[in-house]
Amino acid sequence: MKKPLSLVIVLIALATFLSVAWRESDASVQTGKSKGGGVVASYKQHCAKCHADDGKGIESLQPPDFTDGKWQADNTDKMIADGIRNGKGVMPGFKETMSPAQVNSMVKFVRAFGPKAAKSEKK
């Protein structure tokens, strides 16, 4: 009788551990936080000063408006990544500050500011 009870206790403990770990990883993806603070923290630290929290940019500094559909369409992921790595105009480059994976995450983050595609209506 001890073995089945022990097995049940171990399975409950394992299920609890997995549940907690899953919730923490899900929350970290939603908030953009992970080891090192994630892309949201990195954007706030390095980019928001000029590009603003909403991606529209500080008008007097004239950075690109990430929410503009034309800007999004005219710039490839490679162009955005190159700008992040090497800088552009008065913007400094971050190749010494960000890893290639962080640059790729930042490109996706910048893309997320773009207009959402219109949902097609079901007929």
Structure overview:
Residues 24-35 and 118-123 have low confidence and may be disordered. The radius of gyration is 21 Å and the shape is elongated. The protein is an all-alpha fold and 123 residues long. The longest helix has 30 residues, at 2-31. The protein has six helices and no strands. 59% of the residues lie in helices and 0% in strands. The relative contact order is 0.10.
Describe the structure using short key phrases.
elongated; mainly alpha; Cytochrome Bc1 Complex, Chain D, domain 2; 123 residues
In short, what is this structure?
This protein is mainly α and 123 residues long. It contains six helices and no strands. The chain has helices at residues 2-31, 38-46, 48-51, 69-74, 77-86, 100-112.
What's the helix and strand layout?
Elements: H1 2-31, H2 38-46, H3 48-51, H4 69-74, H5 77-86, H6 100-112
Helix pairs in contact: 2-6, 5-6
Write down the domain tally: 2
SSE pattern, N- to C-terminal:
HHHHHH
| Residue share in helix | 55-70%
Please tally the helical runs, counting DSSP H or I stretches of 4 or more residues.
6
CATH-level-4 superfamily name of the largest domain: Cytochrome c-like domain
* CATH C-level class of the largest domain: Mainly Alpha
N-to-C span: 60 Å
Number of strands: 0
Q: Beta-strand percentage?
A: under 5%
CATH architecture title of the largest domain: Orthogonal Bundle
Overall SS class: mainly alpha
